[in-house]
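Regression test case RT-17, inverse folding.

Input:
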């Protein structure tokens, strides 16, 4: 019943014109849709605005009990009218190059049973349809709507082949039969990574400066860091970017076609639409072809990952990239090159050269620190020159502080941490092909999951409910009738044979002798067996097939059985359960009698429901994206508690047919729909691609699972592309993570691991920023604020440390710091996304407390000879300037700074000290605070590796401070603390007390940020519905309620 047909039940006011609606609302600017009082009035008004019959757009149905119609019309009502019109203009007919037939999709049904269920839901059983004037032809047309599966009306089968002249003309029109591909030279990729990004440019500037002041060793270290970073990025880029190459590797270069009246082997790239090709056992299918006649078995493992071949019949579309494993037929080429199933996939796999999310974050952090470092360094470089330092000395000291304060190797340390963490994922059945994907997995807010094989078992399971329509029959006997309508002594040919022969009691088949067998044929759409009961000699026929096909075999006056069967099919269809009808003939009259319905479905995996519940607990929104029928998708979602807002692909946009570009304003128009939906059904590849792109435009981190070639574009576009177990080579090449175990459980456990890895990286970055800030601010203030000569005339005019000590403070020990990768980390219960404002706030708190403590200690030490000073009041003796230097070194070593690079202006003797101190890793007290995030340092126990590394580094720093020889370095006196162990103990106690203060300040700052939700720290990464999406949900519920449809959440 359409909207127009329903006017009598809704009243004359349902036909309000746009002008009348505007007058009612007091508006004239074509914005009457949302405020109109009733659902049906609003539908009519939007129809007037757009000039379209919206009920017709939604599938010629508007029954009050039709949830689908109400949901889809509500979505249209919440869209801008212009967007509704544009969407309608972009609609195109689904073609065979958009979809692929899988083994489990059952040729004998093709979804006809579910479409029959929809027909009964809308118009009633055959008796009710007849009373309403619904013709049988109209019903059959709806039930057998195989858009994309059946050849289009204008398709012409070629049985004679093309002439060379015809082929040449078509080749000029359609182009070669090959995949479009842009090949970028590998050297250009490496060059771009080495020279064309902010971080490499900054390192090159540092290299030039080091060369200018003749620090060749330091220049060499910088070059090593530069090439290491570029090599890691180059490896990651190539490893994850060869999806098109994987597609091409499965294609064969030759084909057998008929040209000028004779068969010949030609280069497959020369095939054109309309060519007649020979498809024989063992041969590759060279283009998307329609089978002219007979049947073949086709191995589509390269396209779908399925190991079982699919039987294809006359009119079926077999795809480029698959292989014939049984039979020989002639076929007509339908699509070539970019228009094939493969070609459409390849066109969506172009490289975007987009930086990963982690790279963008690290780059932002680097730029902030670089800007701060350069600004402060230039200021005290000028100050040193003004104070009389030589240009080389001032430049040398400034470059050391500058380079030491910038975490040049942060990418190396981060990558190493990710690599070590990836081993944990491998142990759980998840192979990581792009390391940065671990960080994306940790921050994943939305997971778009395929249904078949991921949420479900990918296996049709017979259900206990088997309605029978003849006396004395039960499930066991119906199974026997179904089995003898097949070649039960041969391997099953399709999913339905596999289901029946896998469930029947074979001992009962021994009583039957098959006299004749009619295999499935697209014309009769059923299988039929003629058998003899060896016990009685009775000969009869049995058949199985789609319910509406089998019902048409029954006597025309058997209306009661037809009504009952259709009602049962509708009842099962509403639950997403498939129905296979089974009938037999009466041996006396020869008339067909309905035996029963075999019901089956692909059930969810045992662990899926709990897995999805766990995902929700970790605040990951799981959406089902499937090509299966809406009824199946809705039932699966209901069983898994995923929600019931499942939409069809009808309301989703499409790529531009010619340019392949996404629609303008994708997220503005369709963002609310994608957020609100619990899933989408009856989609095909570009829908998946655009759903992912829409959600990414809204700044969500999106994961996507898939297994076939058709999933590759969405896998590549997603932040986290996940190829499930048994995926094709193309899917694995496009994916970031490859699962080796079936089901969704591995993904959810991988999220848990990834968030722990993210915590380690976040803690490391927090500590690095804090340490950098401490070093920069401490030396900047100390140069200006503290003049040692003011305390003792023999002391230097301004404070600075010898380069060797600065290098010992700033030296990174990779072997020690890498223990962070093994640290115990607490994963977040929400998606782990970078909140840089909050990160810098926490880091600044840690860095500033440490900096203030160092500045305060410096003042205490310089003022230690003052009888009224702090030191003297504690009964401690005055400190020599050489010991001041060593004490500050110890202090900053304990709670100061560790970086990636040591440098500059030191003698070979001093370099010996640096090499001897290669295990020195400072700032471990700050690290112990940073590693626990918003908790106190004792609330998360450190790993043994980190604890041992920290203790060793602090012990070595202490030994160096005690036994440092008394000497002059760069004109600055340095003296160990062995003669004043009281000072040594004081520095340690002082550092520890300020560490406690530092940790407490950090916790307080975090509590404040969470209390006031500073910069959305409490909701970072979590899916937060905008008001427009909330309105859409409320509108959906209200309209369903208005139409008398129950709402379930």
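Golden output:
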């Amino acid at each position: 019943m359409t909207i127009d047909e329903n006017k009598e039940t809704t009243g004359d006011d349902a036909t309000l014109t746009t002008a009348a609606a505007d007058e009612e609302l007091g508006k004239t600017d074509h914005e009457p849709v949302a405020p109109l009082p009733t659902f049906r009035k609003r539908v009519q008004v939007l129809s007037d605005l757009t000039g379209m019959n919206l009920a017709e757009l939604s599938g010629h149905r508007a029954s009050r009990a039709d949830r689908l119609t109400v949901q889809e019309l509500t979505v249209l009502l919440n869209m801008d009218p212009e967007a509704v019109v544009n969407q309608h203009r972009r609609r195109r007919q689904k073609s065979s190059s958009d979809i692929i037939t899988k083994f489990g999709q059952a040729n004998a049904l093709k979804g006809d049973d579910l479409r029959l269920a929809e027909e009964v839901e809308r118009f009633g059983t055959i008796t009710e349809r007849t009373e309403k004037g619904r013709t049988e032809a109209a019903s059959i047309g709806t039930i057998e709507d195989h858009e994309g599966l059946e050849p289009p009306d204008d398709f012409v089968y070629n049985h004679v082949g093309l002439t060379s002249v015809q082929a040449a003309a078509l080749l000029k029109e359609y182009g070669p039969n090959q995949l479009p591909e842009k090949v970028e030279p590998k050297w250009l990729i490496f060059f771009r990574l080495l020279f064309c990004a902010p971080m490499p440019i900054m390192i090159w500037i540092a290299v030039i400066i080091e060369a200018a002041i003749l620090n060749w060793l330091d220049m060499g270290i910088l070059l090593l860091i530069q090439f290491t970073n570029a090599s890691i990025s180059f490896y990651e880029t190539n490893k994850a970017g060869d999806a098109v190459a994987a597609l091409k590797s499965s294609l064969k270069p030759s084909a057998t076609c008929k040209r000028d009246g004779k068969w010949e082997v030609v280069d497959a790239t020369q095939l054109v639409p309309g060519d007649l090709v020979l498809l024989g056992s063992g041969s590759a299918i060279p283009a998307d072809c329609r089978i002219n006649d007979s049947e073949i078995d086709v191995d589509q493992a390269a396209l779908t990952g399925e190991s079982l071949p699919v039987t294809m019949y006359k009119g079926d579309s077999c795809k480029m990239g698959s292989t014939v494993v049984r039979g020989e037929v002639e076929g007509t080429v339908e699509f070539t090159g970019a228009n094939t199933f493969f070609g459409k996939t390849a066109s969506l796999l172009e490289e975007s050269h987009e930086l990963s999310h982690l790279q963008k974050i690290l780059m932002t952090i680097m730029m902030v620190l670089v800007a701060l470092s350069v600004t402060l360094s230039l200021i005290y470089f000028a100050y040193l020159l003004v104070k009389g330092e030589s240009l080389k000395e001032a430049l040398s000291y400034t470059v050391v502080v500058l380079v030491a304060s910038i975490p040049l190797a942060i990418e190396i340390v981060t990558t190493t941490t990710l690599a070590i963490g990836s081993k944990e994922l491998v142990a759980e059945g998840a192979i990581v092909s792009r390391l940065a994907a671990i960080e994306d997995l940790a921050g994943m807010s939305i997971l778009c999951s395929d249904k078949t094989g991921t949420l479900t078992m990918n296996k049709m399971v017979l259900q206990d409910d088997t309605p029978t329509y003849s006396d004395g029959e039960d499930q066991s006997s119906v199974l026997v009738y179904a089995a003898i309508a097949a070649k039960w002594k041969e391997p099953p040919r399709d999913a339905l044979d596999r289901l029946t022969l896998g469930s029947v009691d074979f001992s009962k088949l021994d009583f039957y002798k098959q006299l004749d067998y009619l295999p499935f044929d697209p014309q009769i759409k059923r299988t039929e067996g003629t058998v003899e009961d060896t016990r009685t000699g009775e000969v009869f026929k049995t058949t199985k097939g789609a319910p509406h096909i089998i019902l048409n075999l029954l006597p025309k006056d058997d209306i009661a059985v037809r009504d009952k069967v259709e009602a049962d099919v509708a009842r099962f269809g509403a639950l997403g359960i498939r129905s296979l009808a089974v009938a037999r003939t009466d041996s006396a009259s020869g008339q067909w009698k309905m035996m029963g319905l075999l019901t089956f479905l692909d059930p969810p995996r045992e662990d899926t429901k709990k897995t999805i519940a766990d995902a929700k607990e970790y605040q990951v929104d799981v959406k089902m994206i499937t090509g299966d029928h809406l009824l199946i998708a809705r039932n699966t979602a209901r069983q898994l508690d995923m929600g019931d807002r499942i939409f069809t692909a009808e309301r989703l946009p499409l790529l531009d047919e010619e340019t392949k570009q996404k629609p303008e304003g994708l997220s503005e128009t369709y963002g609310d729909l994608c957020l609100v939906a619990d899933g989408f059904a009856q989609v095909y590849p570009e829908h998946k691609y655009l759903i992912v792109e829409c959600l990414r435009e809204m700044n969500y981190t999106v994961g996507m699972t898939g297994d076939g070639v058709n999933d590759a574009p969405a896998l590549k576009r997603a932040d986290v592309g996940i190829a499930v177990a048994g995926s094709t080579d193309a899917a694995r090449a496009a994916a970031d993570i490859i699962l080796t175990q079936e089901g969704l459980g591995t993904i959810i456990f991988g999220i848990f691991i990834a968030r722990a890895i993210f915590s380690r990286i976040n803690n490391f970055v927090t500590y690095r920023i804090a340490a950098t800030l401490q070093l920069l601010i401490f030396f900047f203030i100390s140069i200006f604020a503290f003049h040692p000569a003011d305390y003792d005339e023999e002391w230097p005019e301004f404070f600075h440390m010898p380069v060797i000590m600065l290098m010992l403070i700033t030296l990174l020990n990779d072997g020690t710091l890498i223990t962070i990768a093994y640290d115990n980390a607490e994963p977040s219960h929400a998606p782990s996304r970078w909140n840089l404002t909050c990160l810098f706030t926490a880091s600044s708190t840690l860095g500033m407390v440490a900096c203030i403590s160092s500045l305060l200690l410096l003042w205490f030490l310089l003022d230690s000879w003052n009888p009224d000073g702090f030191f003297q009041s504690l009964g401690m003796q005055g400190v020599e300037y050489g010991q001041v230097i060593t004490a500050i070194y110890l202090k900053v070593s304990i709670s100061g700074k560790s970086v990636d690079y040591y440098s500059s202006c030191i003698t070979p003797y001093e370099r010996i000290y640096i090499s001897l101190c290669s295990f020195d890793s400072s700032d471990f007290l700050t690290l112990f605070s940073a590693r626990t995030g918003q908790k106190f340092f004792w609330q998360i126990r450190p790993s043994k590796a980190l604890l041992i590394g920290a203790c060793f580094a602090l012990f070595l720093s202490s030994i160096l401070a005690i036994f440092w020889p008394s000497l002059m370095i760069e004109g600055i006196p340095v003296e160990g603390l062995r003669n004043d162990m009281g000072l040594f103990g004081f520095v340690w106690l002082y550092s520890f007390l300020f560490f406690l203060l530092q940790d407490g300040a950090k916790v307080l700052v975090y509590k404040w940020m969470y209390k006031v939700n500073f910069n959305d720290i409490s909701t970072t990464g979590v899916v937060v519905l905008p008001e427009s999406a909330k309105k859409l949900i409320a509108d959906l519920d209200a309209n369903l309620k208005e139409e008398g449809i129950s709402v379930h959440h």
